[in-house]
Amino acid sequence: TTALEEEDTPWLTRLHEVLVTFWPLGFVAFGGPQAHVAILRDHLVVQRDWMDEEAFTELFAIGQGLPGPTSTQLVVSTALARAGPVGGLLAFFLWNLPGLIVLTTCGVLIKEFINPDDPPFYLIGLPPAAISLVFKAFYGFGLKLDQLGIALATFSCIIAILLNGDDNIEPTATQYVFPIMLLCGGLVTYFDSKRENPWGTYKTPKGWDKEDDKTFKRIGISVPVGIFIWIVWAVVLVASIVLVDVGDVDNEYLQLFEKMYRIGSIIFGGGQVVLPLLEAEVVPHWLSEDQFYQGLGLAQSMPGPLFNFSSYIGAVFKGIPGALVAYVGLFGPGVILIFGMVPFWAKLRHVAWFKAALNGVNATAIGLVGAACVILWESAI
Q: For a Cys staple, 295 with which of 93, 256, 312, 371, CB 3.0–4.6 Å?
């Protein structure tokens, strides 16, 4: 019996669980998004039994299909499913806080604390240790796949490795290839589930009952509110672009927010994908090339998401206020969209056709974790 099937615990108790779980994780989450997923799986599914493997993988796949930092969206969505919107926001800030503080401080001081070519001895062992957790997570995910799932995971794994290893393919291609692969994976299992003798294995959900769905109650966001949240994201995006590019408003903070929010709204595939776009937008206008790469080296040595790099960029450009504006701008779209998406997930995961499609999306996302094992092993070992 999982925690969600038992008598529900008081909200304050669950909020306290979010606090004590994510506070230390913010200090030890080294290794990039796939290592973060492995750490979260180990803490939330294996150790604490917050949710089953299936629900965790579904939330991971949803994060892969939305723009923004995947591991941060997984942090928010799992905490949201545990302790509602306050829990989601609390986990978000705890997860990012150490990296945010250090990178903002370094950006304000314009000082190189860590040389990327000669890292301190205490950081050398972190990447290999983080990679081992990625392998562990991939193995755990893979055990749950059926024959069709293994085929989909293998296909997405090969495509992701090809994108990473082919010099003729732009790194930014992942921002549209990954979502397309996830969509195709969902379509494959959806149509397969309609066959008389399907290749995959499909559970028949019991149907959704709002009164009995403890996860939906915990989330505390209705589907109409979820739709409203998506509208808010779109309005902020359009308004900031219109003010800066059409209205030509001369406000450097607004320009900084618009660049970050626009990039955060179109980036799929996590932190590494955002770097070419960030460099094109801010170098040499706001940062020198040296300052950019010094900050990048520091950001990669910090725990938490690489999107924390935004606070360094903002700090170099406009001090602490600039760091906060850039931080909110780059993280904002991904966090807003996951808040808007989770109530749909909680309801639709009990609908047969959606559940069948999720099988394919999950399998495809697991293949991306397998690709990370290959790609990160090469860079870390």
A: 312
What is the total residue count of the chain?
381
The Cα–Cα gap between 258 and 253 comes to 9
The string of pLDDT tens digits covering residues 62-84 is 887 788 888 999 999 999 999 99
Q: What is the 3-state secondary structure (H, E, C) of the chain?
A: CCHHHCCCCCHHHHHHHHHHHHHHHHHHCCCCHHHHHHHHHHHHHHHCCCCCHHHHHHHHHHHHCCCCCHHHHHHHHHHHHHHHHHHHHHHHHHHHHHHHHHHHHHHHHCCCCCCCCCCCHHHHCHHHHHHHHHHHHHHHHHCCCCHHHHHHHHHHHHHHHHHHHCCCCCHHHHHHHHHHHHHHHHHHHHHHHCCCCCCCCCCCCCCCCCCCCHHHHHHCCCHHHHHHHHHHHHHHHHHHHHHHHHCCCCCHHHHHHHHHHHHHHHCCCCHHHHHHHHHHHHCCCCCCHHHHHHHHHHHHHCCCCHHHHHHHHHHHHHHHHHHHHHHHHHHHHHHHHHHHHHHHHHHHCCCHHHHHHHHHHHHHHHHHHHHHHHHHHHHHC
- Residue given tokens 């931080």 in the structure block: 327
- pLDDT tens, residue by residue, 175-224: 678 778 889 999 999 999 999 899 998 877 655 455 556 788 888 899 99
Q: What is the dihedral of CA 46, 50, 51, 56, to 10 degrees?
A: -70
* Phi/psi at 101 (5° precision): -65, -45
CA angle 231, 233, 239 (to 5 degrees): 95
